[in-house]
Amino acid sequence: MSDVAVAPESAGERAFAETIEKDQRVEPRDWMPEGYRKTMIRQIAQHAHSEIIGMQPEGAWITRAPTLRRKAILLAKVQDEAGHGLYLYSAAETLGADRGDLTRRLIEGRQKYSSIFNYPTLTFADVGVIGWLVDGAAICNQVPLCRSSFGPYARAMIRICKEESFHQRQGYELLMTMMSGTPEQRAMVQDATNRWWWPSLMMFGPPDADSPNSAQSMAWKIKRHSNDELRQRFVDMTVPQAEALGVTLPDPELRWNAERGRHDFGEIDWVEFKKVIAGGGPLNAERIAHRRRADEEGAWVREAAAAHAAKATRRRETGA
Amino acid sequence: MSEEIRHEWPLFEVFVRAKRGLNHVHVGSLRAADHEMALHHARDLYTRRNEGVSIWVVRSDDVVSSGPEDKDAFFAPSGDKVYRHPTYYSIPDSVPHI
Fold first, then answer.
1. Which of A142, A181, A196, A286 is deepest in the core (most CB within 10 A)?
2. Is A262 helix (H, G, I), strand (E, B) or coil?
3. Cα torsion for A75, A77, A82, A83, to the nearest 10°?
4. How far is CA A2 from CA A5, A7, A110, A203, in A?
5. CB-based contact (8 Å) between A72 and chain B?
6. Which A residues 288-307 touch B at CB under 8 Å?
7. What would the CATH number be for the domain defined by B8-63?
8. Which of A90, A302, A305 sits opposite B30 (nearest CB)?
9. A58 CB contacts (<8 Å, ≥6 apart)?
């Protein structure tokens, strides 16, 4: 036979390549390269951890929200973040990851979460700016993930994206309300915008030239667009929103480039980005300590519920 | 470590009927101590915005599924029975309503 010299390829490898090639979805029980499985578990777990840790900055304001309406909105939003984390842990479990093990990896610092949640929420305007900029950036990142090649991840993202739109709009509406208030309230919005703008741009990850895993993720169609492309989209979308709101984005180099048909913007402080990723952000230690405390303090509830379930099963089986 | 994993609640698959007249559709999974808790968690997790009128929860252990590896052999019997499809039969165009 003429193809004798060709490296043998298993039926699984062929089927996987064909699925990716045809833009179909890979499902959990399909054969997949070990690297693909590892990348997917790592990415989904990091994403899930980000949602769970992401409850903290805004959760801190639930008791201090200025009106019952804002409190109800914020509660619903933080509950959504918990839900998003759980959709994603569910997707990770389809690949044989164990939810309890993933949580342990998070609180032991062995798995990461988005660097954005290591910054403090100093005023109630931060709640609005997180909705507008942080959730806005998350939407930019997540919409293309709805077409990610791994089926359970793509399906979780569809569900998440439907809900994120409320998050961004409530934030923007909150800021519009504050901007129509007192000079002090307007100053709070500007101050929060100044503090969150650059960390929001960092959410898209390192520049393409410095993003070693991107090419493989694009080839596997886990990722659909490069970090820099998504960041550019976010900037172009956000500039008119800032104008409508009446705030200035804190970048003197930010301007429309008619030739490119896009905005030029200044250099991101990648030293800060790396520092926060490595654990040196303002609140890294506090975020993890809080998550660990919640896990430990909830242990007796989990054990009691398991004991109750075991007892009920025993009683049913013995008819007692 | 194995001790802690043993304390982890079992996994349940969740199926939601979006509205009357539709089938229940698989939406994801969750962890719960028992079926009753699984139903409550499923309501909180998968129907926060009126996504359903009915929920099923099933222990993931109890789901039996065909594997992708035996796809060909498993589904082959339906492949060669073209006479099960209406387009297999040629009827003159002049015959109405068929």
1. A196
2. strand
3. 120
4. 8, 12, 49, 50
5. no
6. 302-303, 305-306
7. 3.10.20.520
8. A90
9. A74, A77, A78, A81, A121, A127, A130
pLDDT at A249: 98
Task: Flag whether the ipTM exceeds 0.95.
Answer: no
pLDDT tens digit sequence for B16-37: 999 999 999 999 999 999 999 9
Check if the beta carbon of residue A148 is closer than 8 Å to that of residue A157.
Answer: yes
Judged by CB atoms closer than 8 Å, whether chains meet at B48 and A79 is answered as yes
CA A225 to chain CA mean position, Å: 16
Q: Is A286 on the interface with B (CB under 8 A)?
A: no
DSSP state of A255: E
Domain ranges of chain B: 8-63
B9 and A163 in contact by Cβ < 8 A?
no
pLDDT of res. B3:
46
DSSP string, B25-94: EEEEEEE-SSHHHHHHHHHHHH-TTS--SEEEEEEGGG-----GGGHHHHHHHHHT-GGGSGGGS---TT
**Position A176, amino acid:** M
Residues with Cβ within 8 Å of A70's Cβ and at least 6 positions away in sequence, in order, are A174
Residue A29 has its nearest CB partner, among B1, B37, B68, at B68
Residues in B whose CB is inside 8 Å of some CB of A read 1, 4-5, 7-9, 11, 27-31, 33-34, 37, 44-45, 48-49, 65, 67-69
Residue numbers in B near A30 (CB within 8 A): 68
CA distances from B50 to A162, A165, B73 (A): 13, 17, 41
Give B11's contacts in chain A (Cβ within 8 Å). Answer: 93
Cβ neighbours around A137 below 10 Å, total? 27
Using the beta-carbon criterion (under 8 Å), do B33 and A93 form an inter-chain contact? no
- Residues from chain A that touch B7, judged by Cβ atoms under 8 A, are 100, 302-303, 306
- Would an 8 Å CB–CB cutoff place A29 in contact with chain B? yes
pLDDT band for position B75 (50/70/90)? confident
CB atoms under 10 Å from CB of A84, counted, come to 27
